[in-house]
Amino acid sequence: MYATSPRRRVGLADAARGRVLFGGDYNPEQWPEETWSEDVRLMREAGVNSVTLGVFSWAKIEPRPGVREFGWLDRLMDLVHANGIGVVLATPTSSPPPWLGRLHPDTLPRDADGRTEWWGGRQHFSHSSATYRRYAAAVTEDLAARYGGHPALTMWHINNEYCTYDWGDEAAGTFRRWLRDRYGTLDALNAAWGTAFWSQGYGDWQEVLPPRRAHYLNNPTQVLDFKRYTSDLLLECYAAERDIVRRHSPDIPVTTNFMPMWAGQDAWRWAEEEDVVSVDLYPDPRDPFGAQEGALVQDMTRSQARGPWMLMEQAAGAVNWRGVNHPKPRGLNRLWSLQAVARGADAVCYFQWRQSRQGAEKFHSGMVGHAGERGRAHQEIKQLGAELRRIGPAVTGRHTPAEIAILHDWNAWWAGAQDGRPSTEVDPPQVLRAWHRALWEAHLTTDFAHPEHDLTAYRLVVVPQLYLLTDTAIDRLVAYVRGGGTLVCGFLTGIADEDDRVRSGGMDERLRELFGIRTLHEWWPLDPGEYAECDGFRGTLWTEEIEALTRAEGAVAVSRYQGGELDGLPAVLNRDRAWYVSTLPEPAALRELLRGVAADAGVRPVLEGLPAQVEAVRRGDLLFVLNHGRDPVTVAVPGEYRDLLGERRVAGALELGRYGVAVLSS
Questions:
Q1: Less crowded by CB within 10 Å, the N or C end of the chain?
Q2: Which of 62, 117, 161, 170 is an active site residue?
Q3: How far is Cα 340 from Cα 291, in angstroms, rounded to an integer?
Q4: What stretch of H or E contains 545?
């Protein structure tokens, strides 16, 4: 649907050219032009080799309909190129100028109550508006024609953080078009949506609407399809602009930036349409699990990219959108940046270069903050830039291996997080984080995979929760175990098919057979703060009333519930190489369970005996060791190494200070 004419496959390596790209969003239109030379001087001193231009520049480029003002951008492109800095040039279409909404109200999105989202912020465009798409294509065409051959250009950046929904009338029309393509007939749509319930049967396509505000619960499959449609419509917008810039510069890679764990995009599908997969990452410096949150996003982005990826945005210090916005303590920015490199990033970039003095993000930090070049944040940026230059040739393009895959799917998330379910306390992203955290704390590196991917390369596959599974996905999981793989699956998995239709027996029979479940009688969700006592641990969030096959039939209750309605019933069930966990064990218990199953499957950490706060990741033939604690640590390392950052020899033991990092080469 989105394919263009055949061309040489380009990617991040074409932009990086053996370096780690280092820089960030540069918004010089916010500053007098005499500031630009000073900016470039500071960039060179900090080791910046890449800047992103034009992300929010539509009103500057097109101040009135059809008018183009490129002179300022001409001078800027020439200036950064003369100073050896490459440009990731953005199409400015994420933030239309006020005149577009004033002259063409159809370009403005509407919410589920029918209220218009006006200009004055950003992302105020309707993805389904033909007028918006026409103006977006026109400005992209002229931008690509002018700069597609400019020697500074290293990458195209389409739009920014695609994240809009639209319930308006034009969206209703494109939603019907999408549904016709998916189902063909109203009879098929009625069957898929289960419209026999609550007298919802549709007899005319004009009756079909986006799931607008309803008196009570919306139809769940209608809501699920609306989320699928929204992801696809935004992808159409991306692909239209991508194809324009590719036509003018076929050898320049194209990207757009994901927001981590955002519900609005099926990132597996989107990643297939990008030359470079990039993400914005902003863990809270005060979050005790901030490093693990970063590792999760990095693992997921690397897996979507199937190799090196781009950290498009992070903060040099504080952000501006939390209730309380804490700066990063000394050394944390360096630590988290190098963690991204360890987990596959070949580009480490920021929002933004110079901190704004006005506007909604004036308290969002920059690589040059309000304190200027003498500020601590900028001094740490200079240190990081020098270190990335040092390790770049040794690390770029290298693979970060993993023998474990965690399965994640947006369709399962969308369906599993709807209203009218057994427990609103069960949040699919939080369950996913809990399982990834358990593996991260066990010092085990993981990939992510879609449930329909080929899983044969992995020794262990982990399914935290996939409420919705297609027949193809279930067959792949069964075949994976039958082929010798080890599978650990969490509760509330395989409950519904792709139309959110509950499968017979409350769980797909192929999975019940695989795990040794004779009957799944009832789901027993837990209240906040409630626990289920089990053999050896306490369960949280959820329990299930399971009747298992007998031991003679191959099913073993590894742990049973103790007391209450489920007394004596299995909490953790094992059959051959398939494990089913019917609750969410407390963190330490889940970590030890997964550590033991991984060891039995032949998966072990890259370094044994690591302190709890230390992370070790192998990338290519380099070993990254990162101390996420404030206290110094000593790490045992077998053999002799050279630390590329500290320019020291390491033999037997490695000393790491507060937030310390070593990149070890044997």
A1: N
A2: 161
A3: 10
A4: strand 542-548
Q: 169 phi and psi, to 5 degrees?
A: -65, -40
Amino acid letter, 100 = L
Question: Angle between the 169-183 and 186-193 helix axes, to the nearest 10 degrees?
Answer: 90
CA–CA separation, 89 and 67 (whole Å): 20
DSSP letter string, 551-612: GGGTEEEEEEB-SSTTTTSEEEEEETTEEEE-SEE-HHHHHHHHHHHHHHTT---SSSS--T
279: left (phi over 0), alpha (psi -120 to 50) or beta: beta
Nearest residue to 23 (alpha-carbon basis) of 298, 204, 278, 201: 278
* Residue whose C-alpha is closest to residue 637's, from 658, 657, 660, 656: 656
The active-site residue, picked from 62, 117, 274, 313, is 313
d(CA 6, CA 272): 15
Q: What integer is the mean pLDDT of 138-142?
A: 98
pLDDT of residue 4 exceeding 50: no
Averaged pLDDT for residues 330-359: 97
Tens of pLDDT, residue by residue over 86-100, are 999 999 999 999 999
Whole-number pLDDT of residue 9: 86
- Please state, in angstroms and rounded to a whole number, the distance separating the CA atoms of residues 215 and 223: 15
Amino acid 6: pLDDT: 57
CB 180 within 8 A of CB 189: no
- HSE-up (13 A, CA, CB side) for residue 252: 26
Q: Are 583 and 541 in contact (CB under 8 A)?
A: yes
User: Where do the domains of the chain lie, and which CATH numbers do they carry?
Assistant: 12-168+210-395 (3.20.20.80), 404-600 (3.40.50.880), 614-665 (2.60.40.1180)
DSSP string, 8-42: ----HHHHHTTS-EEEEEE-GGGS-THHHHHHHHH
Q: Which residues contact 592 (CB under 8 A, 6 or more apart)?
A: 442
pLDDT more than 70, % of the chain = 99
Give the mean pLDDT of 270-299: 97
The answer to whether the CB of 544 falls within 8 A of the CB of 573 is no
Q: Cα(377)–Cα(337) distance, rounded to whole angstroms?
A: 13
Beta strands in 105-234 (DSSP E): 153-157
Model confidence at 7, pLDDT cuts 50, 70, 90, reads low
Q: Which residues pair with 24 in a beta bridge?
A: 51, 350
Q: What is the pTM of this model?
A: 0.96
| Residue 646, pLDDT score | 87
161 flagged as catalytic: yes
Residue 77 CA to residue 425 CA, distance in Å, equals 51
Task: Please give the C-alpha separations between residue 651 and each of 279, 640, 644, 664, 665, in angstroms, as whole numbers.
Answer: 36, 4, 14, 11, 12
pLDDT in tens, 346-382: 999 999 999 999 999 999 999 999 999 999 999 999 9
Pairing state between β 661-665 and 531-534: unpaired
With DSSP H G I counted as helix, E B as strand and the rest as coil, what are the percentages for the chain, rounded to 5? Answer: 35, 20, 45
313 is catalytic: yes
Paired with 662 in beta bridges are 625
Element (H, E) at 53: strand 50-53
Contact 342, 624 (CB under 8 A): yes
